[in-house]
Model the fold of this input.
Amino acid sequence: MSPRDRRLQSEFEEMKALADSSSLLSFTSAGVPPTHYSVTLTCRGLMRWNDRVSETDRHEFDITLGEGFPRLPPTVVWRTPVFHPNLKPPHICTGDIWYPGISVAEFCVEICDLVQYKSFNIYDPLDVEASLWLVVRLAEEEPGIPVDPRPLRDLDFEITPRISDGPDTAGDRGDD
Done:
């Protein structure tokens, strides 16, 4: 297996692990090892319909890992309506989030952060209208940003309270 094929296989394994740990992301892939992913996010984001900005919870995009990957960023084609300064279907601005050491799975986490308005660049926007809308929104007392605070990876753990029989002695070691 070539170094490129090993990297592509590793990317696929990380994507499967991300999908297994997320109720917000699913994908299909093509190629052996995969060089194409069709990704669906089911997190809240925004879309513009006519003159109205509204919430939407389904986002679809394709990621293609070309011959220059990982030196060159993957090609991302957005397939659903979205309203964000750094997304303008079918394009996505990857300059602020892509670097050769990032995995495709982590790249998807960053894309989800964009959709949820946890991340944005209003100074070099792909969609100027969305950037201007966001500037006005951020000046409001309660801007409602991010539009979805949930992490892409599900936080699946339990906290068990510890019950004490006596007074709190957390700082007392008893060596006096």
Remarks:
- The chain has three helices and eight strands.
- The helical segments are 3-20, 104-115, 128-138.
- The longest helix spans residues 3-20.
